[in-house]
Write a structure and sequence with these properties.
Elements (H helix, E strand, L loop, with lengths): L1 H8 L2 E7 L6 H11 L8 H8 L4 H13 L4 H17 L2 E8 L1 H6 L4 H19 L2 E9 L4 H13 L7 E5 L11 H9 L3 E6 L5 H11 L3 E4 L7 H10 L3 E3 L1 H6 L11 H6 L4 E3 L4 H4 L3 H12 L3 H14 L4 H23 L7
Helix pairs in contact: 1-15, 1-17, 5-7, 8-9, 16-17
Length: about 350
């Protein structure tokens, strides 16, 4: 129980969560009411049952339903503020969220209005909850370079509105990263950070592909690198951070169980890793629960868990001066919390 209390109150940083995947059933119901959308259930209890993960096709169905419910600027504001309220409850001080702007623009939404709505909600959420949120608009492999152009333009125009990086997501099993090399080169030339999903539903070759094509500063998931010891050694040599989401990987059957998950093997091999939720509303998880899973699966204690939170901060795209200030604050909070709960300060390992 002492560890549970520590984890619930431990300050955290999250680097891999999809904004659309944070939509709780209550928010989906409200958006459906506003926008006259038919849903598979008419109350929160029914939607919670529908949200229970079945298979990947079911996951896609839920994700697309939630995305399509976002139609007006105030809908995006509602989603962000609800997400930041939950992040505050999870004691998240800073987070970076993936956001698939191309899907919304292709559905006829106004990208400029969405950018302004998100910026307003980010500012209000920071004022109201004290949580700093930054955005990573994702290019989706499946939809081709034309929509990627839109995503890149939106990202570059949003650098003063909360955008910190360009991302790459979508089906890595069917679509490679090479067509998007020019987009990531343009982002790099403009000083925009780069992140790419790889090594989740495809193996080591997909990771090698994004390293060559996207020059990422972090890799989303990357866990199937474990299948290639030489790639693991290369990631460790490069100090290439992996944004790891254990519950998501198990739910989507990348690995059969948390005990079989390679998080600990990658960490011991020297690969930088962070702890994340991916799509928490769809997988029935939250960031505190992810840390607890690591304790249960691998025996990590308070010092190691605090160290993972600090590692996420160091891997973040927060400017160096702000990063250093927040690290000092987190260290003080770890120490005070350790004194209160365990009788001795917790020093991140």
């Amino acid at each position: 129980m002492s560890l549970d209390r520590f984890l619930l109150r431990m300050p955290k940083v999250e680097l891999h969560v999809h904004l659309e995947g944070t939509m709780r059933p209550a928010i989906l119901l409200e958006l459906a009411r506003r926008n006259h959308i038919d849903l598979p259930a008419r109350d929160e209890a029914g939607l919670k049952r529908w949200f229970r993960f079945q298979d990947f096709e079911h996951f896609v169905q839920i994700y697309l339903t939630c995305s399509s419910a976002l139609r007006n600027p105030e809908d995006f504001e509602l989603l962000v503020l609800d997400f930041l309220a939950e992040q505050a409850y999870q004691k998240v001080a800073y987070c970076e969220a993936h956001f698939t702007i191309g899907t919304h623009v292709m559905a006829g939404r106004d990208g400029d209005e969405i950018r302004e709505a998100l910026a307003a909600a980010i500012a209000e959420g920071e004022r109201r909850y004290g949580v700093v949120l930054r955005l990573i608009p994702d290019i989706v492999r499946n939809v081709g370079p034309a929509v990627a152009d839109v995503t890149l333009e939106w990202a570059l125009a949003g650098r003063e509105k909360g955008v910190v990086a360009l991302g790459l997501s979508g089906s890595e099993s069917r679509f490679g990263s090479e067509p998007f090399r020019p987009h990531f080169e343009a982002a790099e030339e403009a000083g925009l950070h780069r992140v790419a999903h790889a090594g989740e539903h495809a193996g080591p070759a997909a990771i090698r592909g994004v390293l060559a094509d996207c020059h990422p500063e972090r890799i989303g998931h990357g866990v199937r690198a474990i299948e290639d010891p030489s790639l693991v050694a290369e990631l460790a040599r490069l100090q290439m951070p992996l944004e790891v989401s254990p519950s998501s990987n198990v739910a989507l059957k990348v690995f059969p169980s948390l005990a079989a998950h390679p998080f600990d093997r990658l960490k011991k091999a020297g690969v930088p890793v962070s702890v994340n939720t991916d799509d928490p509303a769809f997988f029935g998880t939250n960031l505190t629960r992810e840390y607890l899973h690591l304790n249960q699966a691998f025996g990590y204690g308070p010092a190691e868990l605090a160290g993972l939170s600090l590692a996420a901060l160091r891997q973040s795209f927060l400017p160096a001066e702000q990063k250093a200030a927040l690290e000092g604050e987190l260290r003080e909070r770890f120490a005070r919390l350790g004194e209160e709960i365990f009788g001795a300060p917790v020093e991140p390992a």
